[in-house]
Design brief:
6-stranded mixed sheet; alpha/beta; 19 helices; 8-stranded mixed sheet
Length: about 675
């Protein structure tokens, strides 16, 4: 066995050894809790869309950070926060194209087991392929409706915990709600001499309750969720009663200080607040939001709340970490332990939280552990061959670098494919809707949130499956909803929250983009018969102007069919009125497959037909100072090709040290 992996297995083996004698009162130890989150099946640093090595991501580089942390701290436990099995072409290949067999381990889990993970939680995207697949690859037998899923298959090789998701009929948790790990540690006795001891570490898993809306097609009527606080009150006292010295909450979600609800997406603010009521949470591992915590410089709203210390990494005093996404960072909570003669307790004053990055100070990246690729080489190479399957050609470059300011080159074809599908479906199956106008909503899934390389960019020339996956990132299903004119306007108003409110009289530069509003929620229409303006000088909710169909104002009562995806139609993004009740088409076909079939039929895409139609514009206004945004340098020619004459590059380097340039958009043009 390679030495690097041999070392990684030590903690798991330690935990299985016989219990040590109880240490004397006053004994101390440091236990480092290591976290990864939102790996999204980025097993190795490779971009399957661009068919190129990508050093800024991948568990193979996180493995190097893990190995170093184990050298730095004699006592470690390694946990994953979820959103693990979905997110790359490799994940789709193993789930949909050539599904793993019952006796085969999923590639990501194969690596995680060899890296010595001690436990994991479940994220919302882990449900994307359905309950059957999730049960299989996690080694479970879900009993959600009195009929357990098939036989127990090869799982990850470490405990997977999830406490707040239950079978609707059985009322039983889908996974084990918690686990208690007997962790053997190196400690220092009260006399200053080294001793070995055992600390009982309880891990409990939570996921965002909004899975019920986002994966309604798989979960409706089969599972139910419970609020985070309610679940903690149910199980954490039980964990303490069973001897847990330390409780680690692995909760897939972020922070939200809005009024508490058992169904809220990011309920961990209240989970931390309830720590004293539920028996104590000693470490809180976050995820889902794809950002870094602690981070003293963070401007993210969820980390600038009362009782959140974004520098020290605490929420209501609970040590808390979020390790970004895609293996870019490793979270570390160094718990200072002291024994009182009866058990171990955490000394919060001596506990510290940090994150470690795969990118070093000189902008280079730590080396990848080559053993990771060795474990998944066959699956990796098979995925590459699969995504090279040709589907058509494009006569123009399709990208999202300037999607926020009007470039539709990578969006129009998605809208065309979705609208075409809905029209054909209505003609064949729903004649009662044949006279309704059909529109489509699409958004830029990749817009730099994860770094300067996180954009859709499809070169002119042959199109293969990897390009279609670049254009449509997620394994959503195509849905259509029936909305009226008022509902359509409300939808567009919500989407316009992507922008900050601009003061025309302000001479200083103003940032156009609201970073707290994900690009995948900036839904836009690219229909030749519909137009509207977005007035960014107005407050959110009051920005849509001159919404017209065929040159006439859209009436509040006018009915439409709008093509979208299951996530949006079922409530994803909290768009007004979209809660699943307006769905008229719940297609069995994946949105990406619909796009692929459209391209195959078209054979050749052109800018005039598939990339030039723009339904929305900014309302014209002269500003005293520049309105700025950030994108990679050297892309201004793409803005010109998209007809964006009002975009200019101000500086090649925006000064933030992340590789972006600073651009401006002239709202008067």
């Amino acid at each position: 066995m390679p030495a690097r992996f041999a070392l990684a297995l030590v903690p798991a083996l330690f935990a299985q050894t016989a219990a040590c004698a109880a240490p004397a009162a006053g004994s101390t130890a440091t236990l480092a809790i290591l976290e990864t989150t939102d790996i999204h099946s980025n097993v190795v640093g490779y971009d399957y869309f661009k068919l190129a090595v990508e050093p800024s991501l991948g568990l193979d580089r996180t493995a190097t950070l893990i190995a170093q942390a184990r050298k730095d701290f004699p006592n470690t436990l390694l946990f994953d926060n979820g959103d693990t099995i979905q997110g790359t072409a490799l994940a789709d290949y193993q789930a949909l194209v050539k599904p793993v067999k019952c006796d085969e381990q999923l590639g990501i889990y194969k690596v995680m087991q060899r890296l010595g993970y001690d436990g994991a939680g479940i994220g919302n995207h882990d449900f994307n392929y359905g309950l059957g697949f999730l049960a299989q690859v996690s080694g479970q037998r879900f009993d959600v409706d009195g009929k357990p899923t098939g036989k127990t298959c090869a799982g990850p090789g470490f405990p997977v915990v999830l406490a707040n998701v239950y079978g609707t009929k059985t009322k039983q948790p889908l996974f084990a709600p918690y686990a208690i790990i007997d962790k053997r540690i190196h400690a220092v006795g009260a006399d200053g001499k080294p001793v070995e001891a055992v600390v009982k570490v309880g891990i409990i898993g939570f996921t965002t309750p909004t899975i019920l809306a986002w994966d309604k097609r798989w979960l409706e009527g089969r599972i139910t969720t419970e609020g985070l606080v309610e679940t903690a009150k149910r199980y954490i006292p039980e964990m303490r009663a069973k001897g847990a010295d330390v409780v680690v909450a692995i909760s897939h979600g972020g922070l939200d200080a809005g009024p508490y609800s058992p169904t809220m997406e990011n309920g961990n603010y209240y989970l931390a607040q309830s720590s004293g009521q539920v028996g104590g949470i000693d470490a809180l591992l976050l995820g889902h939001s794809h950002v870094l915590f602690p981070n003293a410089a963070s401007t993210v709203p969820q980390f600038n709340l009362p009782n959140v210390d974004k520098a020290r990494g605490t929420v209501f005093g609970v040590p808390t970490v979020m390790a970004n996404l895609w293996g870019k960072n490793l979270g570390v909570i160094r718990l200072a332990l002291r024994h009182d003669g009866k058990g171990w307790a955490v000394d919060k004053d001596r506990t510290a939280v940090e994150t470690r990055s795969t990118q070093q100070a000189d902008k280079s990246f730590v080396p990848a552990d080559p053993q990771v690729m060795g474990l998944v080489r066959a699956e990796h190479e098979a995925t590459i061959q699969y995504v090279k399957t040709p589907v058509g050609r494009t006569g123009f470059r399709m990208s999202t670098y300037f999607a926020d300011v009007g470039d539709r080159s990578a969006i129009q074809v998605v809208n065309q494919a979705q609208a075409d599908y809905v029209r054909r479906y209505v003609a064949a199956n729903l004649p009662q809707y044949k006279d309704l106008p059909v529109l489509s909503m699409a958004a830029a899934f990749k817009s730099g949130n994860a770094g300067v390389g996180d954009y859709t960019d499809v070169a002119e020339g042959d199109l293969a499956l990897n390009n279609a996956a670049d254009l449509y990132l997620y394994p959503n299903a195509l849905y259509a909803v029936k909305v009226d004119g008022a509902g359509l306007k409300a939808w567009l108003e919500k989407a316009a929250g992507r922008f900050n409110t601009i003061d025309p009289a302000k001479a200083e530069p103003q940032e156009l983009i609201n970073p707290a509003f994900p690009s995948y929620n900036f839904d836009t229409i690219t229909a030749p018969n519909l137009g509207y303006e977005i007035d960014v000088t107005r407050a959110p909710g009051q920005r849509i102007r001159n919404l017209r169909l065929d040159g006439k104002p859209v009436a509040d009562s006018q009915a439409f069919l709008v093509a979208t995806n299951n996530y949006r139609a079922s409530g994803g993004g909290n768009f007004p009125g979209l809660d699943g009740s307006k769905t008229v088409i719940a297609s069995p076909d994946a949105s990406r497959d619909v796009l692929i079939e459209f391209i195959r039929k078209a054979q050749r895409l052109s800018r005039d037909v598939n990339g030039a139609q723009r339904s929305w514009h900014f309302a014209k206004v002269k500003t005293a100072g520049p309105v700025v945004f950030h994108a990679p340098p050297g892309k201004i020619a793409l803005a010109r090709a998209a007809g964006l004459a009002n975009v200019s590059m101000l500086r090649e380097d925006d000064g933030q040290g992340k590789g972006f340039a600073l651009y401006a958009v002239d709202l008067a043009q």
